[in-house]
Amino acid sequence: MKRILIIILLNLLCLTVSGQSKDLVKTDGIITALHKTNVGKVTFMNGNIPLDQYKESDFLKSFPLTYKSDLNIRVFMDNSITNYLHRLSPDLSAEQLLEKGNMQFTFYVDGQFIYKENLNPGCWIGNANELKNTVTTFRIPLTSSKGENLWALHLWERFQMNGGEKALKEGKHQLKIEIRPYLKINEKAEAIVGNLIAAGQTELVVKTPKATAKEVAIQPTQPNSGWEISDFKFDKKKIEALNGEIATYNLKEITSIVVIHKGQLLLEEYFNGADRNTLHDPRSAGKSFVSTLMGIAIKDGYIKDENQTLDRFYNLKSFENYDVKKDQINLKDLLTMSSAFNGSDANSESPGNEENMYPTDNWVKFALDLPMDQSKTNGGKWDYFTAGTILLGDILDKKVPGGLEKYADEKLFKPLNITKYQWQYTPQNVANTAGSLQMRSLDYAKYAQLYKNNGAWNGNQIISKEWVQKTFTHQIQIPERENEFYSYLFWNKSVEYKGKHYETYYCAGNGGNEFIIFKNLPIVIIITSKAYNKPYGHPQAEKIVKEFILPAILK
């Protein structure tokens, strides 16, 4: 009987052992005494304290959370991310696991669940896959005063946008973070979530900043603006409230707001160290300028029309992946982001993604070498494609007298009296039409007002009325956005206010930069911002328009 019991116990032990998955990859192991005593913990620290200098006395019990602070976490695990994922699906290789899974972060404030996020499989630092195989402890910033541009900062910002900011009001709060592995085998399946890897909490002391009377006050318009000054009586309290929101960082990283009303300067406000002479970087809002210059070149006869095909400008057989359908891509396809190139900035895996273009030594060749996307060859499919704007700029540079940069200065900037600006350049030293054309806010306002004026400025028809009309037309529907369209490198949507819809055409760039032209209201709005790669960039620009500027004007 005793022997039978021993055999049963041994069999149970074997079953238990065989039911566990052995580690798939070799890790760094438990590497310090501090690590050993804190396995399974998320610890909080002020700034980036190197692991070899980190002590338990550095663990934060309380932290004053401000807009510009350095709240970091260091996580101590007993294994690597790859091995945790391996336990969820033992049959997959390390490469497959890292393509389909990562960590899940869950945030609690004062014991209440606030936000959960499955990190994109590509999120990590350095050599992502190698680190996920080996590291058993890591540090990430949640907030940073140094402008670190890491996925962790965006994770914290999404937590803030999805309830964190509302929960972390003035006073003391307990923040708790839990980390688990997750694996999503395919798009249709629910994610498999593993056991808790690490957890920890700290007290956050939140003190809401107070705006000074000077910060709230409407900024007086200084002389020599180049604009007639409007005497329109708007609701000043709405703009004072807007200034207060910016001063207290409820609206973040805004650098300027300019409002033109009936062709006159109504508001000129600067923030966060900017002033009238600041050259702003509006990122892709600068793409719209190549559309403008294309329209001028057509008016001047250097380009026949936007229906001309690429084979009129390039010997496409001399580039890689030649396809007869590539010959038939026309300028309009590039202007409306609907060409059939296998390029999508929205898809990081796309061969033509802009991040693949920038490291190359010839951006035009990069674009023309791309294969065709067979799902787009029937035409009419919108897909944001920065490399296409590079082709438009290159074509103009070759066709207009003196090249693109000189032509832009003579035909667009000088007539608008825009004298201070800065192009970026391609590797071939051609003005970069992908974006980042830096100007003063008042000069962006001139550019937007030019369209409001149907292409005329001081009696001079700079852009043809026909080109403005085509630009202010719904050229193509933007997928998965209801009632939003794209035209000739301009975006289109309607802004709802008090039950009415006001149509806008606008230039938009990373960070919440927008030049907004109301089609049926006498209003042009310029918003510049440095909220680059932040999830709140464009939502807060929309908030500025809907909750402050329109209520101030449409009283």
Question: What secondary-structure arrangement, pairings included, does this model have?
Answer:
Layout (H helix, E strand, L loop, with lengths): L1 H17 L14 H5 L3 E6 L15 E4 L5 E6 L4 H8 L5 H7 E9 L2 E7 L9 H7 L2 E5 L9 H17 L3 E13 L8 E2 L4 E9 L6 H4 L19 H12 L6 E8 L2 E7 L17 H13 L23 H4 L3 H5 L18 H4 L5 H7 L16 H14 L4 H10 L7 E2 L15 E2 L1 H12 L3 E2 L2 E2 L3 H7 L4 E2 L7 E2 L4 E7 L2 E10 L3 E6 L4 E7 L7 H17 L2
Parallel strand pairs: 2-9
Antiparallel strand pairs: 1-3, 3-6, 4-5, 4-7, 7-8, 7-9, 10-11, 10-21, 12-13, 14-15, 16-17, 17-18, 18-19, 19-20, 20-21
Summarize the structure.
The chain is of the alpha+beta class. The protein has helices spanning 2-18, 33-37, 81-88, 94-100, 128-134, 151-167, 213-216, 236-247, 288-300, 324-327, 331-335, 354-357, 363-369, 386-399, 404-413, 441-452, 465-471, 537-553; strands at 41-46, 62-65, 71-76, 101-109, 112-118, 137-141, 171-183, 192-193, 198-206, 254-261, 264-270, 421-422, 438-439, 456-457, 460-461, 476-477, 485-486, 491-497, 500-509, 513-518, 523-529.
